[in-house]
Amino acid sequence: MEKILMIDSDKCNGCRICELVCSMFHEKSARPSRSRIHVMKWPERAVEFPMTCQHCEVAMCEKACPVNAINRDEYGAMLVAAEKCIGCKLCVFACPFGGSVWDPEKRKIIKCNLCSGDPQCAKFCPPKAIEFVEPTRLNMLKKRAAAERMTELSKLIFGLTA
């Protein structure tokens, strides 16, 4: 079964180690600008959120690419074939999540490839804000979080105690 990156903004502390690990793994240099994952900060909400390719089932980047340089691999990752990429950036415009990144040095698109089934960002995330899980596990965790929120809400509304 394909796994997905689960990102929990409640756990992210903004350390940006995911960016460093990614750039070291793929580019052999500690340059977050060359990373395939980027921590976005919303100061007004005090939230930091790692963003990367979502490897969508219906991948708009793949559909937008005029030279068929983007295809899914056996791990479910949407990969860019650098030798085919013409640098048109249509995939950047097509992605609703900003998962395709223009690399000005290579003059090509770079994006998360799930590190061939062993995502380094998840492996080295100190607060475990990034995990590589089966979609069914993600569903269970989301349901549990929703149930906890509903329980808290019920306590507030109905004055229930545990």
Tell me what you see in this structure.
The protein has one domain: 2-Layer Sandwich (Alpha-Beta Plaits). The protein is 31% helix and 19% strand. A hairpin with a 5-residue loop joins β4 and β5 (78-80). The strands form four sheets. A two-stranded antiparallel sheet has the order 1-8. A two-stranded antiparallel sheet has the order 2-3. It has a two-stranded antiparallel sheet with strand order 4-5. The model has no long low-confidence stretch (mean pLDDT 88). 27% of the residues are buried. The longest helix is centred in the C-terminal third of the chain and has 24 residues, at 135-158. The protein contains five helices and eight strands; from the N terminus they run βαββαββαββαβα. With 162 residues, it is of the alpha+beta class.
